[in-house]
Design brief:
Radius of gyration: 20 Å
Distance between the termini: 33 Å
Structural class: alpha/beta
Largest sheet: 6 strands, parallel
Shape: elongated
Bound molecules: alpha-L-arabinofuranose
Number of helices: 11
CATH architecture of the largest domain: 3-Layer(aba) Sandwich
CATH class of the largest domain: Alpha Beta
Strand order of the largest sheet: 2-1-3-4-5-11
Strand content: 15-25%
CATH topology of the largest domain: Rossmann fold
């Protein structure tokens, strides 16, 4: 798997996400010999608060860095991303960046970009590919670690539980990198305590409505749920609505651990409706622009750049909320 290879070979940098722009607003990019660079960017869609913050970060950072950004929203569909990338190739952009909806099925279009001599940067999510050198780098979080942190919290919280602890999992988009990796990190973490059981797991597609719908079905099928692991804030917030509608108290009757730590998730945690939050920082724009300029200028870049995250309990969320940027 290229992801594994990449992780093994890559240099993990825990660099600060901000402060990577290279010039004042409106000024041409400078890393490619003084010429302004053109970037084609294909975004997953607008499924979550995280995604909206990520899109804003990329658009703002492009302006700040003087990068001419051609932005395309795939509306959650891989075929739209492939069409957008082909269109970027036809337009002869300097660099293509994208956050892949799912992990597989990219070989052909990545080879087309490579054959056209246009470098590709993966941002936020990885792909599986057997083709060598079809992208320059992958900038994004360690999703396995995020799932592990969520699971570690459950392990600690229920360390003294005398019997089975019933967990339901709201998975992200089927086949997407974060859904696959968070599922595996969480399973690994809770595996240390045989009392912890995932009794149901289903995709809510990273949306609030999806999380609510799946949670309603879980509540009907399983009257004895102890914990919800929501693979993003939006699904967790949908679960809160479903739990309240069922006459139970989220955060008390049913504990909730989620991933993202967007403003809404932090508010739910500070309010006692979520119990624990794992961050996934969406502010990738400045770092993406910086790396893109280097790639276009022919400079070498690490082939894996891991963005740093942290975790929040309820008191930490309440304290951090006033300064939260997304
Ligand atoms: O790829 C990052 C994930 O995608 C975020 O956790 C989720 O909110 C988003 O939709």
């Amino acid at each position: 798997m290229n992801r594994v290879l990449t992780a093994m070979l890559g240099i993990a940098t825990a660099g600060v996400l901000a402060a990577c722009g290279s010039g004042p607003a409106g000024q041409s990019g400078d890393a490619a010999g003084g010429e302004q660079i053109t970037m084609g960017f294909s975004q997953v869609g607008a499924e979550s608060g995280w995604r909206t913050a990520n899109t804003t970060s990329i658009q703002d950072a492009a302006k700040e860095a003087g990068v001419d950004l051609k932005f395309s929203d795939a509306n959650g569909k891989q075929e739209n991303q492939i069409s957008a990338i082909r269109s970027f190739i036809q337009q002869r952009v300097d660099v293509i960046a994208f956050s892949p909806v799912v992990r597989t099925g990219w070989d052909a279009v990545l080879l087309e970009a490579k054959n056209a001599g246009i470098p590709v940067i993966l941002t936020d999510r990885a792909v599986d590919t057997s083709e060598p050198d079809v992208y320059k780098t992958f900038i994004g979080a360690d999703f396995v670690q995020e799932g592990q942190w969520a699971g570690d919290w459950v392990v600690k919280e229920f360390a003294a539980a005398p019997g089975p602890v019933n967990i339901v999992q709201l998975e992200g988009t089927t086949g997407s990198d974060p859904a696959l990796e968070r599922t595996s990190g969480f399973a690994k973490a809770i595996g240390v305590n045989p009392n912890l059981k995932v009794i149901a797991s289903q995709t809510g597609d990273f949306t609030r409505s999806g999380g609510k719908q799946v949670m309603e079905a879980f509540l009907k099928a399983h009257p004895d749920i102890d914990v919800v692991f929501a693979q993003n804030d939006d699904m967790g917030l949908g679960a809160v609505e479903a739990i309240e509608a069922a006459g139970k108290k989220p955060g008390t009757d049913i504990k909730i651990v989620a991933i993202d730590a967007t403003h809404d998730g932090m508010q739910a945690t500070a309010d006692g409706k979520f119990n624990f939050l794992v961050e996934c920082n969406p502010l990738l724009g400045p770092q993406l622009m910086d790396i893109a300029k280097k790639v276009v200028a022919g400079e070498s870049v690490p082939n894996r750049i891991v963005t740093p995250d942290q975790t929040f309990d309820q008191a930490q969320a309440a304290a951090a909320l006033p300064e939260r940027k997304y």
